[in-house]
Fold this sequence. Notes:
- The complex is a heterodimer of chains A (114) and B (112).
- Chain A is mainly β and 114 residues long.
- Chain A is built from no helices and 11 strands.
- Chain A is globular.
- The termini of chain A are far apart.
- Chain B has 112 residues and is mostly beta strands.
- Chain B has no helices and 11 strands.
- In chain B, the strands form 2 sheets. In chain B, strands 2, 4, 5, 9, 10 and 11 form a 6-stranded mixed sheet that branches. In chain B, strands 1-3-8-7-6 form a 5-stranded antiparallel sheet, with no helix packed on it.
- In chain B, strand 6 and strand 7 form a beta hairpin.
- The termini of chain B are far apart.
- In chain B, 38% of the residues are buried.
- At the A-B interface, strand 4, strand 5, strand 9 and strand 10 of A face strand 4, strand 5, strand 9 and strand 10 of B.
Amino acid sequence: ETGVTQSPTHLIKTRGQQVTLRCSSQSGHNTVSWYQQALGQGPQFIFQYYREEENGRGNFPPRFSGLQFPNYSSELNVNALELDDSALYLCASVDRATVGTEAFFGQGTRLTVV
Amino acid sequence: QKEVEQNSGPLSVPEGAIASLNCTYSDRGSQSFFWYRQYSGKSPELIMFIYSNGDKEDGRFTAQLNKASQYVSLLIRDSQPSDSATYLCAVRYNFGNEKLTFGTGTRLTIIP
Lengths: 114, 112
């Protein structure tokens, strides 16, 4: 049990729709990162939030956006869903004040776009 | 392009034997290295991290890091059927950036 919780656990959306995924970070962890894991692949970094600001972004289009709240929880929003967005979306939280800290993942949200 | 490479497997190991998983990375400036275990349909579970050259042991698991050769390995002693999973290697390039770059994972099967 990592202390990182994600919701919902499963989601089915139609192509073109919008989706919001949520993540509550582990207590004391002020940085949240989002990853997309397609079937058979390793997780791919989407972006990271620190103190409510985006602090690094991977190779994902602008229709992937996010927010971080004062309590360090975070949202991932995806607009204009495409079939290839079907994946496991993972949230990880890190305590940046601790050198070498581990990255703990939540249980993930399985998104299926039909 | 900063890359992390793993043999995709599958790797089959008899129960009780040592399973050896390898990972190479391209960026010499990499600082921290992580091994995750992922069961089918589940999220990755952190097994170990290492950031100094040498070995780090935790129970049946040993991580080995060789920065000069740019590889990191994970040894699983006394392999159990419950160790059957996909093992992901991840690299963090510096302490100021928590982005992890993952390999594609190695599928490990422990044969009873």
